[in-house]
Structure formats: structure tokens, C-alpha cells
Amino acid sequence: MPFDRDRVLRGAAALLARKSTATMDEVAKAAGISRATLHRHFAGRDVLVRALEALGIEECEAALDAARLDEGPVRDALRRLVREIEPAAGLLSFLYSENQLFEGEGQNEGWERIDARLVALFRRGQESGELRIDLTPAWLTEALFGLVVSGGWAVLDGRVAAKDFPFMITELLLGGALRREGP
Contact, 64 vs 144, CB < 8 A? Predict the structure, then answer.
């Protein structure tokens, strides 16, 4: 059977999202391959984590594209985005806990591209009067990531139904981010 990199990465992502301390042996077993095959393609955990990071960035960018962030009211764009990103929430939860991905000079530029697109969305919401102006677009971006990651963990742990993920995240974020009328 030929090596299916995407299948192996998705199997590793599913396992590591549930058990971030899984060994390479456990990852190989979850992916349905031998440990030797896993090491032949991913020479250690760091290489595997970096490959998962690339997959996570790809998933985020695909969700951003599918959400059509420039169309319609910002609140609708956010709802579309959260629906689109939900399938990757478990992987993002794992990646979020991998500090080495976000430190130093080795940081993947993909995260900066994603942040820039989200900052632009929140800025558009502020400029249109939809969103509060006393919260920075950068903070709203971090808050969105935090909610997606927390929601991903809650779904994986069975504390939240996957079908409720989009509603809970967008309602909590927008409930705190919407501009209020009056004093």
C-alpha cells in the first residue's frame, strides 16, 4: 500500500488532538502504519508537529476562503467562518498548545497571513459600526482563536455537542464585541 501522507497526518491530528502526549508509536498505530514508516517520513516528533502545523494553516486558510469574509455584515462572515473552521478545531487545539510553533524565528508565516485576514475582518466591522471600537482587532483575533480552541477541546471531551460549536462561539464572541447603543 502506498504511503498516504494526508491520511497519516489526519490520523495523527485526530490522536494528538485527544492525547497531545501520544508517542510516535501511538501515532503510527493510529495512522495504521509501522513506526519505521512513520519515522521514514517524519524523522521525529518535531518534524511531525511542523507537518501538522502546515496542515492546520492550510485548513484555516481554506476556512477563511470558504467563509467569504468580505461579503455581507461582519457578524454573518464570522458565523460562516466558525462553521467552516469547526472541522479543524481539534487540530488547532493541539497546535495551540505547541508553544514552539509560536516562538522565535522559526514561526510559520502562515499564522501571520491568517491573523492579517482576521484583523482586516474585525477592522471592517469596526469601521462599519457593527463592532465595538474599544477592543483592538488584534485582541478580537486572539479572542476568536481562544474560543475556537476552547470549543475544540470541549467537543473532543464530549462536554459540548459538535452541532452547538458554531452557535456558542459566535454568540459569545459577538455578544462581547457588538457595539452597544447608548451610554
Answer: no
Going by pLDDT thresholds of 50, 70 and 90, the confidence category of residue 103 is confident
Query: Strand pairing partners for 131?
Result: 178
71: nearest Cα among 112, 128, 116: 128
Contact status, residue 29 vs residue 15, Cβ threshold 8 Å: no
The pTM for the full model equals 0.87
Cα separation, 127 vs 133, in Å, equals: 8
Do the beta carbons of residue 110 and residue 116 sit within 8 Å?
no
- As a whole number of angstroms, the distance between CA 91 and CA 56 comes to 7
Q: What is the CA radius of gyration of the chain?
A: 18
Amino acid at 89: A
165 CB contacts (<8 Å, ≥6 apart)? 82, 86, 89, 151, 152, 155
Mean of the per-residue pLDDT values of the chain: 90
| Inter-residue contact 88 to 67 (CB < 8 Å) | no
Which of the given ranges, 98-102, 117-121, 145-149, 173-177, has the highest pLDDT on average? Answer: 117-121
Distance CA 103, CA 101 (A): 6
Write the single-letter amino acid at 146: G
